[in-house]
Amino acid sequence: MNRRSFIALLIAGSATRGVARLDAATTKEVEVMAEKFDFTPDTVKAKVGQPLTFVLTSIDRIHGFKMPDFGIRTDIVPGEERRVTIMPTKTGSFAFFCDVFCGDGHEEMGGTLIVEA
């Protein structure tokens, strides 16, 4: 490999790493805790075009986290952290809910993502 090619690859690699760091720095994180019949918080706000990472934990049992408008579905297991990142592309209110039955009151276990301009 000649010197010019090496320098070009070095510069390109540095530019790519800089972009990755910028993306990580602009990603908003929100911690959401699941427990029987409840998500805390149950309302999350985000901005269009800003990546959002849900940091999901459970304190009592396995719960589900489903957000159909974003094609998301994962289990939340006690003692583990689940991270789900989305990119909101339009404004509006979007439901999320538990889809793992956790007893009477399960049907009320949900929340809302509000995406603003």
Structure report:
By secondary structure, the protein is an alpha/beta fold. The protein has one domain (27-116): Cupredoxins -  blue copper proteins (Immunoglobulin-like, Sandwich). Helix content is 21%, strand content 44%. It has a four-stranded mixed sheet with strand order 2-1-4-7, with no helix packed on it. It has a three-stranded mixed sheet with strand order 3-9-8, with no helix packed on it. A hairpin with a 2-residue loop joins strand 1 (28-35) and strand 2 (38-40). The protein is globular, with a radius of gyration of 19 Å.
Sequence-ordered SSE layout with sheet pairings:
Blueprint: H1 3-26, E1 28-35, E2 38-40, E3 43-47, E4 52-58, E5 63-67, E6 72-76, E7 82-86, E8 92-97, E9 110-116
Parallel strand pairs: 1-4, 3-9
Antiparallel strand pairs: 1-2, 4-7, 5-6, 8-9
Q: Strand order, main sheet: write it out.
A: 2-1-4-7
Give a count of the beta strands, DSSP E runs of length 2 or more. 9
CATH homologous superfamily placement: Cupredoxins -  blue copper proteins
Distance between the termini: 48 Å
Mean pLDDT: 84
How many separate helices? Answer: 1
Overview in brief:
The protein has 117 residues and is α/β, with parallel strands linked by helices. It contains 1 helix and 9 strands; from the N terminus they run αβββββββββ.
Write a concise keyword list for the protein shown above.
3-stranded mixed β-sheet; alpha/beta; Immunoglobulin-like; 4-stranded mixed β-sheet; 1 helix; 117 residues; single chain; globular
